[in-house]
Every structure is written in C-alpha cells, then in structure tokens.
Amino acid sequence: MDLKARLNDVRETILKAEKDAGRPAGSVTLVAVSKTFDADAIRPAIEAGQRVFGENRVQEASSKWPELTAETDGIELRLIGPLQSNKAAEAVALFDVIESVDREKIARAIATEMQKQGKRLRLYVQVNTGLEPQKAGIAPDDTPAFLKLCREELGLTIEGLMCIPPAAENPGPHFALLSMLAAENGVEKLSMGMSGDYETAVAFGATSVRVGSAIFGSR
Ligand SMILES: *Cc1c(COP(=O)(O)O)cnc(C)c1O
C-alpha cells in the first residue's frame, strides 16, 4: 500500500469509529505525525488533502516545514514532543499548536514568547496518566492546580489535554481518566490515540488522534 492508500484507510477507520461511538462524522481531527520523514515523504500526504501535522522535535521541524508551508495554504503544525525553554522562541514562531505543555517553566517561556512575538498559539497540557517516571507530563492529581496557574497567572488559554498511555497497558482507562480531567476542569479538547489505539481513543472521546506509522510507514 502507498501513502495515499494508508491515509485513506486511517480516515475510513476514524469515520467508522465516530459512527460506532455515536459521534458526528468529522468530529475527530487527524493529526498526521510526520517525525523522521523528510519533506519529499510528506508531500504526498499534503497532496492527498492532509493539512494537520505533528512533529516531536523543534529542530527537525524547522528543517523541513518552512518550505512545505510556503508551498501550500492552510497547513497546521503541532508540536507533540517535549520542549526545552531555549527552543521556546523557535517553537512559538514555527508551530500553531503546542500539545506538550508539561511544566511551569515551559508554560512561562511560551507565555513570554507569545507576548513578544504577538502570536497566540493553541495549547494543550500533557498529562502523565500512567505516572511513568521517564515520561513527560503533569501528574493527574496536579492537573487542576497546573491549569489554574496557566490560566490565572500566565493568562494562557488551554484548549485541551494530551496523553500518551503506557505502552504495555490497556489504553482505555488512561483515555477515560484524561476525559474526566478535561470535563472536571472545563477543558474542551482531548488529544489521545496513536497508530495502535486511535479507534479506542475515538470511542473514549478523543477530539484529535496523532497517527504516524499507520500513515507514513514504520520509522
Ligand atoms: C510518534 C508519536 C505519535 C505517533 O505514533 P505512531 O505510533 O507512529 O502512530 C503520537 N504521539 C506522539 C507524542 C509521538 O511522539
């Protein structure tokens, strides 16, 4: 199967999952995760109408996306990987959405840069639902206080919550936890689900899914 066929498969799977969950068609945004793939590998996805892309490294994204966004209108770029404060300026300039707001220091750096650049990004707080020590994200119990800090002290609008469940676990309970945290804290959107579990994520209320290898092939 080529990229267009794989992309169509993913789109159809999402449509079916929306239908099965009794959700309106088109209620889930597909974020195509293009990390490790170069501009030439990404172009066929853009030609097939894909407009929302995710990258996990600022440096890598800066090396390929400026030429791609110059070629096509309406591309939306999302940072889904950890951000270092010394890359905040570059990230704010390049991305439309940052899904990996995961600590106070980076929330402050993003707030400062948005002000400086006069640019408002859409932001997601990453929650470490599995409390994994090697994984980024705010602990579920700390999420209400962190959201309060972002909103009240830093003046940020938090559009959604994002999580990456532990690889070896059933993702359902993690998706349910993220959904509950969002509802309890007045957060609208849920970024959850990757190639292996995006159908499950749609059933649990994902408003966007981040799908890489099922579209671009293995990395
Ligand atoms: C790489 C990555 C994805 C996509 O993973 P696939 O299994 O290839 O679909 C999704 N989310 C994050 C945060 C990633 O780093």
Written overview of the protein:
The chain has 219 residues and is of the alpha/beta class. It is 44% helix and 17% strand. An 8-stranded parallel beta sheet has the order 7-6-5-4-3-2-1-8. Helix 5 links the parallel strand 4 (97-101) and strand 5. Helix 4 (88-94) packs across helix 5. The longest helix is centred in the first third of the chain and has 18 residues, at 3-20. It is globular. Bound molecules: pyridoxal-5'-phosphate. Pyridoxal-5'-phosphate is lined by residues 33, 35, 56, 80-81, 164, 194-196, 210-214. Belongs to the pyridoxal phosphate-binding protein YggS/PROSC family.
Question: What labels describe this entry?
Answer:
219 residues; alpha/beta; 8-stranded parallel β-sheet; globular; binds pyridoxal-5'-phosphate
Secondary-structure blueprint of this entry?
Elements: H1 3-20, E1 29-33, H2 39-47, E2 52-55, H3 58-71, E3 76-79, H4 88-94, E4 97-101, H5 104-117, E5 122-127, H6 143-153, E6 158-163, H7 172-184, E7 189-191, H8 198-203, E8 208-211, H9 213-216
Parallel strand pairs: 1-2, 1-8, 2-3, 3-4, 4-5, 5-6, 6-7
Helix pairs in contact: 4-5
This protein binds pyridoxal-5'-phosphate.
